[in-house]
Amino acid sequence: MNIKNVNNLCSIEKKNVAISSVIAAFFITAAKITVGVLTGSLGIISEALHSALDFIAAIITYIAVHFADQPADYSHHYGHGKIESLSALIETVLLVITCAWIIYEAINRLVTGNFHLEVTFWSYAVVILSIIVDFSRSRALLKVAKKHNSQALEADALHFSTDIWSSLVVLLGLICAQIGWHKADSIAALAVAIIVIGISYKLGKKAVDTLLDKAPNELIPIIKKILKEFPEVSSYHSLKVRQSGADTFIEISIHFSPNLHINKAHNITENIESRICSHVERCHIHIHQEPEDANHN
Predict the structure, then answer these.
(1) Do 205 and 225 belong together in one domain?
(2) Interacting residues of 243 by C-beta distance below 8 A, sequence separation 6+
(3) What does the alpha-carbon distance between residue 224 and residue 34 come to, in Å, rounded to a whole number?
(4) Domain holding 47: CATH number?
(5) Strand 235-244 to 283-291 pairing
């Protein structure tokens, strides 16, 4: 199977898991909004808004994975992979906005004592159903994200996994409210916001690092170790690594003895590229060859 077919299969798998998340997020959001409004539970309403943003984020993710795997063109020499990081950053902003509203409303209810909450069978049902759906979706998304090194799908998986913890907190709040401690619902909503803010920070930092071309530190030692396997390489410099979506771009200058035949130097360079590509999926390598006595910094 050639590279083009492999990339097509990769794109199809990513799109399938992304669209299934859009569908799941839509139905969970609708269910939470309905039950939250009927029961007056701020915990469930905050979860509904969280899920609504997950729905929007899932749509953004689908759009991102649709365009991210498009090949490089005249205007985008390094492909379109960074749209995944951009979508992850947008998701982070949406989550932070939601958290701000949840914190405001929860504190307002705690200060004023204005609690309107009715715990019913449907309150428990929608939260438990949400936990089950979120667990299955987060596992499916994370599996495909790791398989294809997709930051957009990883962000979506984090959204759904965050929902699991926040739903558990809301479930605890409902139990406490049913036994008469109505403040628990607002406290649960604050806990949801804190959980989401923590996840958002990690997600946003990773997206910004990629957009700013921060070097993936875990790859540098691997590349250096591979270079040491080739005694013909007397030295190297200007090692640069950047990521764009699922693709990794590597640049390096290596030095050979000036007496080494150009054909042999070329063969060694190809072997180095093959070794690095065996450890780094979807990598694009540019190696510049120089004679050892060349002036370099």
Answers:
(1) no
(2) 81, 210, 216, 249
(3) 56
(4) 1.20.1510.10
(5) unpaired
Q: Can you name the residues that pair with 283 across neighbouring β-strands?
A: 248
Compute the CA torsion angle 160, 165, 169, 175 (nearest 10 deg).
80
Per-residue pLDDT tens digits of the chain, which is 297 residues long: 444 444 555 667 777 788 888 888 888 888 888 887 777 776 677 777 777 877 887 888 788 777 777 777 787 777 777 887 887 788 788 778 777 877 887 788 788 776 555 667 777 888 888 888 888 888 888 888 777 767 677 777 877 777 777 777 778 777 877 777 767 767 777 877 787 788 788 878 888 888 888 888 788 888 888 988 888 888 888 889 888 877 889 999 999 888 888 889 889 999 999 989 888 877 888 889 888 765 554
Q: Pinpoint the alpha helices (H) of the chain.
A: 3-39, 42-68, 82-112, 121-148, 151-178, 183-211, 220-228, 262-279
How many other C-beta atoms lie within 10 A of the C-beta of residue 46?
A: 32
Q: State residue 31 phi and psi, 5-degree precision.
A: -65, -45
CA distance 53 to 232: 55
Q: How far apart are CA 42 and CA 103, in angstroms?
A: 11
Contact yes or no for 187/106 (Cβ under 8 A) = yes
**Domain assignment of residue 297, yes or no:** no
Phi-psi region of 185 (alpha: psi -120 to 50; beta: other; left: phi over 0): alpha
Residue 296 lies in a domain: no
- pTM of the predicted model, to two decimals? 0.64
Domain at 237, CATH number: 3.30.70.1350
Concatenating the DSSP letter of every residue in 199-231 gives HHHHHHHHHHHHHTT---TTTHHHHHHHHHT-T
List the structure tokens of 198: 């923590």
